[in-house]
Amino acid sequence: MLLLPHKHKANISIKFINLVYKSILTIMMEHEGLTILLKNNPRQAVKNLAEGLDINKTFTANNLKALEDQGYIKSKRVKIFKVYFKKIEGG
């Protein structure tokens, strides 16, 4: 644990909380954006989804994996690509 003079502890805590909050909001918005893109235009590759949201391909792939692990979307390998689509509600 890093020990800092008392006057700096509160300031760093607020900055850290703001950073975490902004990160969580960013991920939530990108998850929502991905599910909307997939609902409107299913069977898209990571590259297309990343370009559609103007975010990094690796970050997009990680978000897609998280959404798939949670059961919100599905993926299927088509030739050399892994394509994603929104899971049908109730199915």
What's the helical proportion of residues? 55-70%
Q: Please give the CATH architecture.
A: Orthogonal Bundle
CATH third-tier fold name: Arc Repressor Mutant, subunit A
Number of helices: 3
What is the name of the CATH class?
Mainly Alpha
Compute the number of strand runs: 3
Summarize the biggest pleated sheet: 3 strands, antiparallel
Low-confidence stretches: none
How far the N terminus sits from the C terminus, by CA atoms, comes to 47 Å
Oligomer type: single chain
Number of domains: 1
- How would you name the CATH homologous superfamily? Winged helix-like DNA-binding domain superfamily/Winged helix DNA-binding domain
Describe the structure in your own words:
- The chain is an alpha+beta fold.
- It has a single domain (8-86), classed as Winged helix-like DNA-binding domain superfamily/Winged helix DNA-binding domain (Arc Repressor Mutant, subunit A), CATH 1.10.10.
- Helix content is 62%, strand content 15%.
- It is built from 3 helices and 3 strands; from the N terminus they run αβααββ.
- The chain has helices at residues 6-40, 46-53, 57-69; strands spanning 44-45, 73-78, 81-86.
- Strands 1-3-2 form a 3-stranded antiparallel beta sheet.
- The longest helix has 35 residues, at 6-40.
- The protein starts with 5 loop residues before the first helix and ends in a 5-residue tail after the last strand.
Structural topology:
Elements lengths: L5 H35 L3 E2 H8 L3 H13 L3 E6 L2 E6 L5
Helix pairs in contact: 1-3, 2-3
Provide a brief overview of the structure.
The protein is α+β, with helices and mostly antiparallel strands and 91 residues long. It contains three helices and three strands. 62% of the residues lie in helices and 15% in strands.
